[in-house]
Amino acid sequence: MPKTKRMAIILGAVAVIIGGIYVAINLKATGPVRVARPPERLIFAVAAVLDSVPALVAHQQGFFARDGLDVEIKFYPAGKDALAAVRRGEAHFATVADLPIVLATLEGADIQIFATICKSGRENSIVARKDRGITTPDQLRGKIVGLIPGTTSEFLLDEFLIMHGIPRTAITIVGLNPGETVDALLSGRVDAVSTWNQYTANLLKNLGDNGVRFFGEETYQMYWNVVATRDFVAEHKDSINKFVKALDRANNYIASNPDGAQKVAMEAFRLDPAQLKEVWNDYEFDLSLDHTLLMTLENQARWAMKQNKTTAREMPNFQNFFYLDALHRINPAAVTVMR
Amino acid sequence: MSIRKRLAAIAILPLAVALLFSLYVIHKDRHLRDHRKELQFATTLAQDVFDLNFLSDRYLIYQERQIKDQWLTKHDAIGKRLAEKRFADRGNEQLREKLRRVHREMGYIFTLLSNDLDTRNEVGNAGQPDERSERLSGVLLIKAREMFTAAVHLANKKQHELASIRERFNFSVIVLFIALASVISVISALSSRSIIASIARLRSGTEIVAAGNLDHRVEPVADDELGRLARAFNEMTERLQSADANLRNSVAALRLEVEERKRAEEKARSLNDELEETIAALEEEIADHQQTGEELRDKERLLIIQSRQAAMGEMIGNIAHQWRQPLNLLGLIVQGLPESSDRGEINAEDLKVSSNKAMQVIFHMSQTIDDFRNFFRPDKEKVSFKVCDAVSRALSIIEGSFTSSMITIETRAMGDPVIHGYPNEFSQVLINILLNARDAIEERKVDNPRVTITIDTKDDKAVVIIADNAGGIPEEIMDKIFDPYFTTRGPDKGTGVGLFMSKTIIEKNMNGALAAHNVGNGAEFRIEV
After folding, report:
1. For A155, which residue in chain B has the nearest alpha carbon?
2. Which domains does chain A have, with CATH numbers?
3. What is the mean pLDDT of chain B?
4. Percent of chain B with pLDDT over 70
5. Chain B interface residues facing chain A, Cβ-Cβ under 8 Å?
6. To which H or E segment does residue B48 belong?
7. Sign of the dihedral defined by the CA atoms of residues A180, A181, A182, A187, in that order
């Protein structure tokens, strides 16, 4: 065989090997071939709090649309309102904290959590007026404290009082809407409020040196979740998968491009950029389904039953209120809920 | 690049690749080692957190002090471990920070809880947990779980990272190996192709040139050994072409030369013929010349004979002059004898005396004859002789005639030079000159006639000068006196060959010089030999 021909065969074989490796890598990377389908229209009830930023980013960056989901976002003042919208059938998904889920499930709501999109120990805090003699937690005794009933605001205040040895009877509790918490404290209608982060920034700005803030992060971390009804989950697993995937992308985007994510939040909630930057690190945007959430739900359920926040007297098995498969498909390590 | 360098590079390339691989593997191994340490840290941490959670559960059940101490020790150890470690990866570092935060919160909660439990035990309410203790217990368990989850997550993450790094490492090694092997193969192939193409072109070029096309040139494809070989081959072809052209020119020139030579040969042949004809003519001419020479030699011989005859005549005259006195003496002796006899005066003694006198006279006369005979005998070969002797012999022959003519001969010998030649012929030359001087003196009736012979040496040559006072040689004939048959005397007295023969003897036979010129009141002949 001539040398040139032999050389050509060798080079050809090398090229085939390299080409084969390239094709194999690309096949592995691209996965199954996509089939074009009409987009699925979904309503996403989103509470207007910073914990919901992943939902907004997924929508604004087109991560839902990329996987064939036509998602419409509807804002609600609180997570419990968004959850209520899902329960009423006005929305398919809702962003909601742990306590509203507990209360809803104790009331018989058949919902399932399929992802936690944010965790924060500082989302809830107590802001008080110094001119009302409050500079330490113990000085809350005898004061009027406002809260948002049925939300983590209420749970945090109760946890805070217990941890600081203050009897519930030592304070006067006033129920407020989320937006009212600011005016109530600034006007002096209440001496302190247990409220959410985006309101505390406003409160502290207006109170100036007259304001004081107490956290309960050592004992309570809020889990911000996405839920849907069990029936919807059962019937739309593919959509759930895509939905979770889009949220995962959104969280990755937030991690890699925090400025872009903050811009989305500012546009959605009309927040002051400086204030936003100040509180941004209070949030842990990470897609997960932790067993600690389940334990938190159980603790809150015990608390709710003891405090007669529900008529239910039997602890539900919260394992049944989790849908783990969607997140487990894309990130098994993120799912630590025991099965 | 030259082929030698290219081959060296190809040979070194695998070594360089192996070195590169080694460096890469060493680098990656260090990277992997760091990750393995971090994984070990995360795994150990997860184990510690698990142990802490186990202690938390035990404490919540038994609420005993030693368990509390064990818990605090373990908690403290975990805190130190977390404080010492730093991760380069941002995600891992965030996890570590989260672990530290939860660890801190656990400590806070455990302290609150243990204080509550201790207080309650002190007041005797053991076994009846209050709401706060219950809540703290719940939170502690949550925190414990959270911490364990975070620790496991960190360990899993590190494990995943390690596996990913290993996978990437293996993949990159394979890709790198294939890529570098491909590069080596391509470089080898390209080099081989280039070399083969060069060789093929060179071979083709050599074949074309070998077929006789010296105008063909091999195009060098690269600046390497084969390129240089191609250029050298082209130079060789050019030289070959030049040599070929020169050869062709030489052949043409040779052909021309051959033709020219042929023409020259023909011409030479023609010339030879002409030469032969000329030679023949010359031979004829030479024959004529020889004949003329013979005639000349005959004439010369005749001249010599004439000269000798003249000399002979002179000699006879001289003999007669020499003999005249002895003959008179001999006549007187013979005449006296009868008279003495008549007077009776003669006796034996007187007869003997007279006889002896007569015999002496006769002997003298015989001696004279021998001298003349010897003088006129031609010399056979050159010999060395003294000039003075030659002069004496000449004078002995002619002095009688000079005496009778009352001519004084004065000889001045300044030396006694010796010359190599023919002595008789030299003496004859002297006699000829002396006789010419005598004849001139007698003819011109000179008063107090005198001939002076001077013998000297000058510049290693013998010089003989014969001068007379006869009035000299007329200038109009000065340049003719040595011509043959030239004479100023009538045919009865001179032959005109004397001075001619003298000049011939001195200059031709003895390589000397004979010249004449007028000095004072006479002529002077100068002989140099």
Report:
1. B135
2. 40-121+221-334 (3.40.190.10), 124-215 (3.40.190.10)
3. 83
4. 91
5. 98, 104-105, 108-109, 112, 131-132, 135-136, 138-139, 141-142, 145-146, 149, 152-153, 156-157, 160, 174-175, 178-179, 181-182, 185-186, 189, 192-193, 196
6. helix B3-62
7. positive
